[in-house]
Amino acid sequence: MRPLPEAPGPKGYPVVGMGPHLARDLVGTFTRAWREHGDVVRFALPGSLRLFLVTHPSHLQHVLEDNQPIYPKDPLSVGKFESFVGTGLFTSNGEYHFRQRRLAQPAFKGARVASYGPAMVSASGDLVAGWRRAGITDADITPELMRLALTIVLRTVFSVDVGDQAERIASAVRTCNAYTNTRLQRFVELPLARLGRAHRRFVAARALLDRFVYDLIRRRRRDPLDGDDLLSRLLAARDESGTRGMTDRQIRDEVVTIFLGGYETTALSLVWTFSLLSRHPEAEVAVRAELADRVGDRPVTAADLPALTYLRLVYQESLRLYPPVWTMSRSPIEHDVIGGHRIPRGSQVFLSPYLVHRHPEFWDNPEGFQPERFAKQGPAQRPRYSYLPFSRGPRLCPGSGIALLEAPLVIARILQSYRLSLQPGHLCVPTSNVFLYPKGGMPMRLTPASGGW
């Protein structure tokens, strides 16, 4: 039998291979390699490191669903995330992961999720009221929407409002994420790296978050709320025997995981959506007309969302073009074959929704902004794994339902009060990070809407 061919790919520099390119610009390097070499790409790296990028829907289904048991989370990446989030749903593998998922999953479902709507709208109203009181006309909306999303998480998921602590908590999360991202882009970590200033800042930020979260858990165990927020559900969760729940550490890890993925990803999806509406004013006009027709002069509610068809199409298309979780990594525990190429055991296998969502075989005008495509082409008309903003398979994001409620409500409420326009000359370019951030932020002109409040 003839041996399987090596996957094609760029070679890079002598000795270090593609390491510097990947560290400098992961989004751009992945994109260029995919366009030049196809749906399975191998990147030359120093020593025994083996890194692959796969971008065909059938390949993603193979890794995330059909052959999922041999593709746990990549231990190299997980180890760097664990220093921040611990062993939560995002980082855990195997039976532990699926036990935690069974315990946590009910907290993300049911009528309670819909009941978060008023708090989401109220927090959005507070944001725009603050802009109006302060007379703000120009701002980078990235930190503004980060702060809003964190406020929504704290109010809805944990039933607390931290007031002036919000910025300290948000800053701590940003510090931890930035440090984690830097580590992820290093293929070799020097032992002395943990003696540097960046590591000390990370440790201090993580300690601040831990104090806040553990205090929240202790107070809630001591004085349970009558409400039914996500923290209460995590505390009340029991396994099949009905006796074993989560320890404080396990709940801490899930709460910090929510901070990592539950607020930052939603905030970034909002940033990219407002940038797209500014770049495509005809879409903004259509969304505003729909809001005026279906909602009128009152604040939007969750009950309005089924009627806000075009707004939801806009958000779907925004998630296609700029999925906040733009790449995922796995590492096979057995040798495997993808696309006719051998994937050795222990390789890093990267899957990129950002690139799959741009695959010309499955999307017409893949780089174009066309919300109507989701109305004309239903899910049954394209491969399931051609669109996965919240992943798919057994590890589908459990918080996707919250995100799909929150983001359209926030977009609608802000548009009822303001028009957001990109500052002239700003280029909307994604940059490599744990999530898909805009390079240079998203500076915008904030103009009060006529008749808004």
Automatic annotation (TrEMBL):
A Gene Ontology molecular function term of the record: iron ion binding
Binding of heme, residues: 397
Keywords: Heme, Iron, Metal-binding, Monooxygenase, Oxidoreductase
CDD domains noted in UniProt: CYP132-like (cd20620)
UniProt name for this protein: Cytochrome P450
Organism whose genome encodes this protein: Solihabitans fulvus
Pfam family for this entry, one: p450
UniProt keyword NADP present: no
PANTHER family: BIFUNCTIONAL ALBAFLAVENONE MONOOXYGENASE_TERPENE SYNTHASE, CYTOCHROME P450 FAMILY 4
Family the UniProt entry places it in: Belongs to the cytochrome P450 family.
Cofactor(s) this protein cannot do without: heme
